[in-house]
Amino acid sequence: MLLIKNCKVLAGNEFLERSILIGDDGKIEKVATSGLKTADVVVDAAGKYALPGLIDIHVHFREPGMTQKEDFLTGSRAAAAGGVTTIFDMPNTRPATTTVQLLEEKRKLAAAKCVVNYGLYMGATATNLEEVEKARNIPGVKLYMGSTTGDMAMTDKEKIRDFFHSGRKIVVHAEDEELMKRNMENFKGENNSEIHAKIRSGEVALAAVKEAISIGGDIHITHSSTKEEMKMIKAKGITCDVTPHHLFLTADELKKQGNYAKMNPPLRSREDVEALWMAVNDGTVNCIATDHAPHTAEEKEKGYREAPSGVPGVQTMLSLLLDAVNKKRLTLQQLIRLTSENPASLFSIKNKGKLAVAADADITLVDLKEEKTIKNDDMLSKCGWTPFNGWKVKGAVAATIVNGTVVYDEGAIMNEKTKGKEAIFNGK
């Protein structure tokens, strides 16, 4: 048994001092002010806040096929260090997760290595709807309307419609392929990272979002990045998420960091960033998810057209958001909704996203007062870098508890032999 003493827990809409008793089954037995029995392990969390473990609905842990960048062990260690207790891994691996057999093989890899909990998406192709319909216990299906890492772009509107109306939740990468190709032709003579935001312009994203909405179905727009997208998403009442890099960085970073700031969709203008924050605060944005997409420094040092798109983020998300809480950009209550409660509700995850009796004991302890500098050297991702290197933040992860086991504490992974569990989805 584990007892977390003297932490601050959200009760109603305020934080009150409580202690949390966790049973040997990895579930919360009691949350109370007093009267809790002793336990085998006691953590004194005085002055710290206990949050429901973060759920990152969008990571690329690169296994199988690209383990030089990341794998389930290194990615999940970075997640634990970032206070993330559950991740959903994307399907654009090598081979892509597009059949039930490949899904089951990937499950074995995750079960053997992940130190946090996990869910696995299936990927949509023009020919695999039947396979997707047979898949069990997946959070949803990833559908790429535009090309990115991997070769999974779908442009056949009828095939897209079939998926959107399949009864599965469809997580949509919304970039218009044809418009993007026209832009690439316009800039074919240039080879610098600054053109990335022009090739994959705001119009490219908006056109795809319009198309997706016109088709209808149970869709969720991932890594939304522009002011115009937010207007349309709010008007149509569909769900979406945004990433920390789109909230905290602008396209100016392409000049400063080059390909290290290259991702799909690209970084946007300051006006777009402010619009995303407005959408976070008015409830248009349902989740914040990292799109953790590590690549090696060697790959990023290539020319613009050869360098892959994507940045790591699973370890830095919470520190950045806690800093935003300290700066009054959002409240800690909002942070919990965006990173725990809403993901659990939106994807129908059993027993997660809350600190309540009988819920899974996935808990993140945070210190709102601790100040630190984000450094490449501290990153546990195999890629070993972050676009936020050198950023000073206030607010840090103190400990991460997964299924009742302390996995991360005092700056180190504590129980690497203890594995996370596959999340259980109440839907299909």
How would you describe this protein?
The protein folds into two domains: 2-50 and 352-379 and 393-413, Urease, subunit C, domain 1; 53-346, Alpha-Beta Barrel (TIM Barrel), CATH 3.20.20. It is 30% helix and 22% strand. It is built from 14 helices and 18 strands. Helix 7 packs parallel to helix 8 (227-236) and helix 8 runs parallel beside helix 11 (270-282).
**Mean pLDDT value:** 96
Work out the number of β strands. 18
Helicity range of the residues? Answer: 25-40%
Low-confidence stretches: none
Q: So, CATH architecture of the largest domain?
A: Alpha-Beta Barrel
Instruction: Give the helix/strand class.
Output: alpha/beta
**What name is given to the CATH topology of the largest domain?**
TIM Barrel
Characterize the main sheet: 9 strands, mixed
The general outline is globular
- The first-level CATH class name of the largest domain: Alpha Beta
Q: How far is it from the N-terminal to the C-terminal residue, by CA?
A: 33 Å
Strand fraction equals 15-25%
Count of folded domains: 2
CATH H level, superfamily name of the largest domain: Metal-dependent hydrolases
Count of alpha and pi helical runs = 14
Radius of gyration: 21 Å
